[in-house]
Structure formats: structure tokens, C-alpha cells
Amino acid sequence: MILHYYFARRFFRVFLTTLLIFFAFLTLIDLVEQMRRFNSEAASFYDILILTLLNAPAGLYQILPLVMILSSVSLFLTLARTSELVVTRASGRSALMTLLSPMLVAALIGVIAVTLFNPLVAATTKRVASLESEYRDQGQSTLSIGREGLWLRQGDETGQTVIHAERADERMTTLYDVTFWQYDTSSQPQARISAEEAMLTSQGWLLRGAKQWPLGTDENPEAASQVWASLIVSTSLTEERIRDSFSEPSAVSIWDMNSYISELEEAGFSARRHKVWLQMELARPLFLMAMMLVGAGFTMRHSRFGKTGVAVLAAVMLGFGLYYVRNFAQILGENGQLPTILAAWTPPVASIMLALGLLLHMEDG
Q1: What is the pLDDT of residues 53-62, one digit of tens each?
Q2: Confidence (pTM)
């Protein structure tokens, strides 16, 4: 038990040290990049520094597998050079038993990253996007979304509504030159509404300068049209849901992801990307364990055998390869070419099996 605690403590210390080194490098590089993007008139140095620090958690979260494999390589190279692994084997402890405590530490780090660090990354990502928009626009209140404007869709038990706007404000709660197409539950058009402006309120969309054409009747839509100075159109959309619909799934906390997926599907949006992302996050602890095992598999030999540099390079390259396969499976899952569970869980499980096979081959031949 004491030996397990010793290896776990050593591995955790190496991981924290490696993480802090990467944090320093990422912060410095991002600070220079942010200073290049924003001039002193748009943002002061203090503003850029805050923006850089807010952007750091997302960068660290992306490179956690790299930090994990480098921490594993660093730890076991040190243990091999000091002959501690030789003494451990001489005491009758196998390589897999030696790796038990670092594996548990890697799994614990993965759980902490998913449950605590993921919500932090989601919050800071939203804040960074808001600050960048503020500094870039320098107070401008409107923006254009794509060449064809902004498209939204909302739905409830009565049917679906497709919304198109030429422009939107920074918060995407006020739309300009907007058109609503309303459909019933059988996808038949019911009405078309055009307005100069639509503002999202607690009661729904508040339309100003609106004109409504009925489409679900046999009469002439133009003859039956109505003009309204103001008109309320009910909606299930909120400001947060609209903003998140145009951002990456990583901008949504894992604790809110299930309810957010349900809301997206209820409103008629496709939630496939979010479903894949949720499963990928749940599988992250397994993938971090695989990265630790890969690093150990190449560096647990005694240093007198030589070719240490080749072993380190092979471990890092294999780690990058597994990370690429994981991302490729995620893309296939988001495109619908692989089932969600298969795309998310196959790469980490296969990586662990590969690493265990490598360890058994290295230790027992």
C-alpha cells in the first residue's frame, strides 16, 4: 500500500509540474497573439491579459492527453534511471501492479477534468467570445450572420416556426428585417409574418411594424393580410439557447448537456454533435488512462538498454496517432456515419487494450 501511494504521489506531482509548464507556455503565446489581434484603442493591456487568462483553461483542456503522456514518460524515465523499477520488480511486484496507482490517478484526473474543469471551460469560453466581440466591434450594436443572414427554428406542440433575419444585435435577441414562417404539426404552412424588428422578451418575440399573411386557407393571402404596429409571437427560445446554437458544444457545461439536448430536439434542431460531444467527455477518463499506459509501455525499461530517445519519440507519436483516431471517430459520429456510442467509446477502449498489449509484450516478451 505504501508503494502504491508513493507511485501515485510521484505521478501526480509530475502531472502538476507538466501542466504548469504548459500553462506558462500557452499563456505567453496566447498573450502575444491577442496583442497582435487587438490594438491599444480597442483594448488595454489589462483587458488583453484578462482575455488571455480566460482563454487558458480551454487550451489546457484540449491538450490534457498530451500532458498525460508526457507526465507518464517523465515519471517512468526517472524511475528507470534511479533503478527504482528494478527494485520494485525484485520485490516481486509485476509491471501491471506497479501501474495500478498511476492508472487510478489518471482516472481521477479525468473525472475531475470532466466534472469540474469542463463547466469552467464552458463558462470561460462564453466569456471570451463575448469579450472578443466587444473589443472587435468597438461598440457597434449589429452584425450580419453569414451571407444569407441569420436562420433559426423553434418548435412546440402546435408546430414549427422558421425564422430568418438579415441582421441581429450582438446578443442575438433583437433581429432586423425578420420573417417568420409558421407550420403546423404536419409541416403544412400556416402563416407568414414579416417585421422590421423582432425583440426577444419573456412573453415571446415582440414584433414591430409587422404584416401577417395567412397561408393555411383558400382565400387570397394578400387580401386577408393584417398589419400590426406590434405583435407577440410565442417562442421556446432563450438568449442562451440562441447563442449556444451558433457555438461549439464545448461551450455548454456537461451538467447542462442532457437538458440542452432535449431542448434542442424539442425546438427542431439537430443535437447529434452535442450527443457525440457528451459521450466523448464521459469517455475522457478512459482515454487519459490509455495515454498514461502508452507512455509507461515505452519507458519502463532500464536506461542501460539504450535507445531512450527512440522510445520517448515512439510513445509521443503513438499518443498523437491515438488522439488523431479519436478525433476522426468524433467527426464520423457527428456526420452520422458511426453510432454515437461507437464513435465515442471505441477509441479509448481500443487504446487501453493496445497499451496493455504493448506492456505485456515489453515485460513478458
Answers
A1: 999 999 999 9
A2: 0.72
